[in-house]
Amino acid sequence: GADDSLTPSTLGIGLKEGYDAIGLELSLCKPYLRREMERELKRICEGSKTRDDVVRESVELYKAVYTKTVSEVASLENALSRCLQEQPKNDPGGVWTPTVEPEEVCACPNADGGKWTLRTRQNNAGWFIGCTCYPQCRRSVWLPDSVASISVGSGMCVECSGDANGPAKLVDIRFRPGSVPPGVPSQYSGCVRGCDELLNELFELRQSRSSVSGVANGASSISNISAGNDRMRS
């Protein structure tokens, strides 16, 4: 009979090798994401989940995959370059640097007129929050490697709503599995201006509030975890 087997294209082979090299927790070359989506749709039909919950969780999941892929895009480029036998042409060095617009979090606690914005580090190797008045203001918070993804949410912090500079926006964080102490949720929404006990510990925000430039390397111990969990925002 006729051969009904599928033959992968050169581009498809390159993409598979590239995604495998990146080492995504949920492989884009296997039906994990599609299978999970089908399960979530079934839960909506059964009434155990709402449409909004599924949409929100799916966006967070796909955003984490995108962020991981962008941070290690060189692995994808190398695989495609090898399979297609072409050098990337987006710049002379063959390195793709995505344009990521900084997201405003709140007014800078130090600089008049300055804004604290969430940005990616050089080479997209993680995130930090810095002032728009840099280098005049070097106040910053460097987020630890335990953060798998982070974005500025639409909610506002109620704890600092009375601040003279206005309230801060909540940030939505997803931590890497096994990178935070037991009891810390894998997904968390909180305030980075210093009024969130859990993030104060994880990001050493108390230190950054009293100094010109704070560096967060992760905390060795976590206190008041139950209080921090009560602060989670949906």
Radius of gyration: 21 Å
Q: Are there runs of 5+ residues with pLDDT below 50, and where?
A: 90-99, 207-234
Binned strand content: 15-25%
State the helicity in percent bands. Answer: 25-40%
Output mean pLDDT. Answer: 75
Cross-sheet strand order for the largest sheet: 1-2-3-4-8
The CA-CA distance between the termini, in Å, is 56 Å
Model description:
The chain is globular, with a radius of gyration of 21 Å. Residues 90-99 and 207-234 have low confidence and may be disordered. The strands form two sheets. Strands 1-2-3-4-8 form a five-stranded mixed sheet. It has helices spanning 10-22, 32-46, 51-71, 73-84, 197-203, 205-210, 225-230, and strands spanning 103-107, 115-120, 127-131, 140-142, 147-156, 169-175, 187-190, 214-215. It is α+β, with helices and mostly antiparallel strands. Helix 1 (10-22) packs antiparallel against helix 4 (73-84). It is 34% helix and 18% strand.
Please outline the helices and strands.
Layout lengths: L9 H13 L9 H15 L4 H21 L1 H12 L18 E5 L7 E6 L6 E5 L8 E3 L4 E10 L12 E7 L11 E4 L6 H7 L1 H6 L3 E2 L9 H6 L4
Parallel strand pairs: 4-8
Antiparallel strand pairs: 1-2, 2-3, 3-4, 5-6, 6-7
Helix pairs in contact: 1-4
Can you tag this structure with a few keywords?
three-stranded antiparallel beta sheet; 18% strand; five-stranded mixed beta sheet; disordered C terminus; 234 residues; single chain; 7 helices; alpha+beta
Summarize the structure.
This protein has 234 residues and is α+β, with helices and mostly antiparallel strands. Helix content is 34%, strand content 18%. It contains 7 helices and 8 strands.
